[in-house]
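Hi all, a correction to my earlier message: I attached the wrong file for UDP-N-acetylglucosamine 2-epimerase (Non-hydrolyzing). Here's the right sequence:
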Amino acid sequence: MADESTDLTGKVAVVFGTRPEIIKQAPVLHALGADGAGVFTGQHYDPELTDAVFRSCGLEPLAPAVDGVGGGTRAQQVARMVDRLADRFTRQRPRAVVVQGDTNTANAGAQAGHYLGITVVHVEAGLRSHDRAMPEETNRLLISALADVHCAATPENARNLLDGAVPATSVFVTGNPVVEAVTALCPSPEETAALLAGLGVAPGGVVATVHRPENTDDPQRLRTLLAGLGELGAPVALPLHPRTRKALTAWGVPVPATVRVLPPVDYRTFLALTRSASLLVSDSGGLQEEVTVLKKPLVVVRTSTERPESVAAGFSVLSEPEDLVAHARRMTAPQAVARLADTPSPYGDGLASQRIATLARGGVPALQAV
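and the right structure:
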């Protein structure tokens, strides 16, 4: 049965459904205090992993507020969430609905709030890859059309919104709560050493993640990517996403001897892996932000990115699988690594969640340039 243990009436409903959303919305919930209430749709629902993320973010684990979402098709997920969230928002009307990013949950939360005339606040608004083949791009465009308050992480994100005819009076450059999340949750050097020892991973190697369909659903692309990881000349830790595990088996893609396959890890453990690595290789969106806080080089194995700020600042580079090794060498050159240590994150000053909370309450924060 869906969880409705928290009454949303008059609260700011902070909606999330995936592990990355929990991480980025947790600072917003903390900033809202008693004015906020979390609503977890269960889009990602593996209690062993999800509950650990809640706890690591200083939140009590929430049971799903929507039944039967995990594992459905995009259409099924969005339709079910819109229906259930709108029903709950009708019975327990919140003062505002906060959604984050570009997930099916964010799309559904924005629709449910909009259709009921509730203020919709979009965190991480204005990201654009200009690649409609990405499901996330469609979600971004839909949410931008529905939201009343747009919390852009960067000035470039704000320009994307203005270019899309979003009223300037509704766009605020707040920064991204990922800065607060990484700063708060990054383990100490002692804890990092203990976590690495528990995994049997030595510091100074490469950490890789692969999960996007453009890589997992193309056997030749996946084969080339894995072969490239094996040619980096360093041990590689690869926390394996279930989709990627299935694809490796289905396509018969060999894993190089230098690549250590790990089970999925919780966020603090992943930050420990990341902060101790000499290089990151990934198709993740969030990692493109996180490396700017951790000051690490990243090769993004994708054809496009909605986070060009990370590339422009020198923290990441877009790469096709066949170019992975060449880009890795360039990103790990001593002068390149040294420069990153002195480069500020383009995603803000660590006060984004406070600004977003003020906007969600109906106020206007004292905004600073980011």
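Sorry for the mix-up. The mean pLDDT is 94.
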